[in-house]
Amino acid sequence: MSARALFHTAPRCxxxxxxxxxxxxxxxxLVHTICSGISGGTERLVYRGEVPAESALDDTIDxxxxxxxxxxxxxxxxxxxxxxxxxxxxxxxxxQDVFAARADDLIALPAVDxxxxxxxxxxxxxxxxxxxxxxxxxxxxxxxxxxxLGLLTGLLLQRAGWRPLIAEPLAWRRTLADSLGLATAAPxxxxxxxxxxxxxxxxxxxxxxxxLDLLAHEGTLLIASWFGTKAVVLPLGGAFHRRRLTIRxxxxxxxxxxxxxxxxxxxxxxxxxxxxxELPLARLCTHVFAFGxxxxxxxxxxxxxxxxxxxxxxxxxxAVGDL
Length: 323
Hints:
Helices cover 25% and strands 28% of the residues. By secondary structure, it is of the alpha/beta class.
């Protein structure tokens, strides 16, 4: 028998290939995939070939060894069942129908829809962005971008006491954000109020420059976007210099030193698992594609299909559909 795995073979080209069925080593278990999620941010960059070929896939995930040199397997949002126990788990693993993984790397899931559970990495990332935002009771924060990460970040910032305003150019995304109880505006009309914090999750390389004008004195631009090979030009001569602004990155691979006294990766993941049952993930998990039609799924993500927030590959379906 063989397994099936998704490979990137060239920019905007993916194909499913047969690979040897994994044989679990000591401490590993076999996992049969139920579904896997496609990240609309990082994976779209990867699909487009907008990541340096020499960059490591991910130094923090064992299943993502190697670089972005073609061909390569990529992905980090698999939900499946452990062959021996039938337990439903999450795994940071590329898109593949059966794989071996260290038992202690798997995350046991509560009673949650498996497709929604593929959003776990984005929930964890939104949690880290919120932690990096710090405290801001009733302070306005502008979030640039109403993709899945932007909306999840807005919801968690709201829980933390901030007043998030989601700036998003697409009207249908603003409508979705409004329905989730988040204030919205088009990017060109966020208002005259200067804010202490702007968070960029847009993936748009022009967004950080525009964000600087929104910041109050000594405000912070927190960048969660990964731009890959795209250049970002920042005007550092005017507002940035005179208002003592700060530009900072936020990223989920590590826990920053300033939070290490109270937070660890294990605690953050426990909290993210609990959030799977508390956040409106079903509203964000909009499209399901059969694994065999993964190329269509990636094309839809790449083109920004209207209404598509999060695409899921289903390993038992034979047709494309919506959740």
